[in-house]
Write a structure and sequence with these properties.
about 300 residues; mainly alpha; 13 helices
């Protein structure tokens, strides 16, 4: 069964997840962009598929390095289910690049739990958020996650509070200098266009409504069920869990204010949501229950193509 198969991280499970992602990727292309089929088209799509695989590899590294879950592949599987459920992510490449740079920031934020190179981590985290902001302006909100991490991991000092500002400004200033030199300041200012859209009519469609309801139920269920258990555990996971909850809230805010409401905005939810739900699955003693939930995610990720 699916829960037992992905219960341990093995080469075969990782390979299966990549294959599943490739299937979703191909189906999305065939349904949305098949008319422009050519050799160059295939090369282009394979090139961008590599970035999706890289995204999964970085996610896996962050999870294992910071022990955000146990030794299983549930989080990666859930992320692939989410990408399959919201296939529009495949056609907005800047969203993928924005999330990859954010992952490099998350890697530093969640590693603040250790005492090693705190100031370098804070600078690097803010630096990558600055780059992501230049790609997608609403990524700027993740700068708050750095300060949340500083307080939760008890790294508060004047220098530590100042360093993220310097780190964030650095890539922004470099890009400003580049734009000024080539007389393209208009392009620079467009990077900070904070248009937002609070119209959610698109979500009334069944292809959005059903997976969104499932996500909300699973996230609420996971948080309410797992949080009390983690709080009672005297280790670093309870600090990382607090960061994860705040990470989730920031991602939800980005979804709410996103000017694009076609499912691609849920890419920003994939990382925290998958880890939170994975922690819930890990603590469930009923294998049949885990199987039902994972198959439910699978069925919904397939059914949206027919709604």
């Amino acid at each position: 069964m699916i829960a037992n198969f992905f219960n341990k991280t093995k080469p075969i499970t990782s390979f299966s997840i990549v294959i599943l992602l490739f299937i979703y990727y191909c189906i999305s292309i065939l349904m949305e962009d098949f008319n422009s089929f050519s050799v160059l088209f295939i090369v282009d799509k394979l090139f961008y598929f590599f970035w999706y695989v890289l995204f999964l590899l970085i996610v896996n590294f962050i999870i294992k390095k910071n022990k955000l879950t146990q030794d299983n592949s549930y989080a990666l599987l859930l992320i692939v289910f989410m990408l399959g459920t919201f296939p529009k992510t495949i056609f907005l490449n800047y969203i993928v690049f924005s999330n990859i740079t954010l992952l490099l920031s998350y890697r530093k934020i969640y590693s603040l739990r250790s005492e090693i190179n705190t100031k370098i981590k804070l600078f690097d985290a803010a630096f990558w958020i600055g780059i992501s902001t230049l790609i997608y302006s609403w990524s700027v909100l993740y700068i708050f996650l750095i300060y949340i991490g500083i307080f939760i991991y008890q790294k508060v000092s004047f220098k530590n509070l100042l360093i993220p500002i310097v780190g964030f400004i650095t890539p922004v200033f470099i890009y400003f200098t580049y734009s000024f030199y080539f007389n393209s300041l208009t392009t620079f200012y467009e990077r900070f266009d904070y248009n937002f859209k609070l119209v959610f009519v698109t979500y009334n469609s069944l292809r959005f409504l059903i997976p969104i309801i499932l996500l909300i139920i699973m996230l609420l269920w996971s948080i309410l069920s797992v949080t009390p258990k983690i709080i009672l555990i005297s280790n670093n996971l309870k600090f990382s869990w607090s960061v994860l909850i705040n990470h989730l809230l920031i991602s939800i805010v980005i979804i709410i204010f996103s000017p694009v409401k076609n499912g691609v905005e849920f890419f920003y939810l994939a990382f925290p949501a998958s880890i939170i739900i994975t922690n819930f699955l890990e603590r469930s003693k009923l294998t049949i229950f885990k199987n039902i939930l994972l198959y439910l995610f699978l069925v919904i990720s397939i059914s949206v193509y027919f709604l």
